Fold this protein.
Amino acid sequence: MRTTRSELETKFPAIGAAYDFVLPSYTFLAARFEAADNRLTTLLTLTATLSLGAPILAGSIRKDISFLSVWFLAAMMSFLASVIVGLVGRVSGKLTLPDPMVHFKTSLSDPEWEFKKNAIAFAGKHFAANSEAILRKGNVAACVAALLVLEIACLICWIALAPEWPGITL
């Protein structure tokens, strides 16, 4: 037996009030997605700055430091891994937003109550997908941060423990 619109309106009387949360849910998750992406960008910038500045700092502390040290090479491999992971994390993942053309083609003939009900359902699906994308970006940022810590530890060991650069005489 098919449920009539008035029965659905009786069963779900808060559709109008719930619809008021549709747009703010997209706005909230768009801001969180952008914050996660900015956090990743900041970590990549910090990693690059540290990796480019460390050899200069090490050279000013120890004039004869070896760039063939295992510690330096490990730090550079950690840098390379963090850049690759970070860039893949930046370009992957997307924010799901409502497509006005889909609403135009499929929902404009619906009564207002039906349109709002469908918009709430789509917003719920999009909320789950967007939350997952934000979580993945956060996990990538955590991975980049861990690689940054590893790089810093390797650079400290390099400056403190690396053998001297062998002198070249002609």
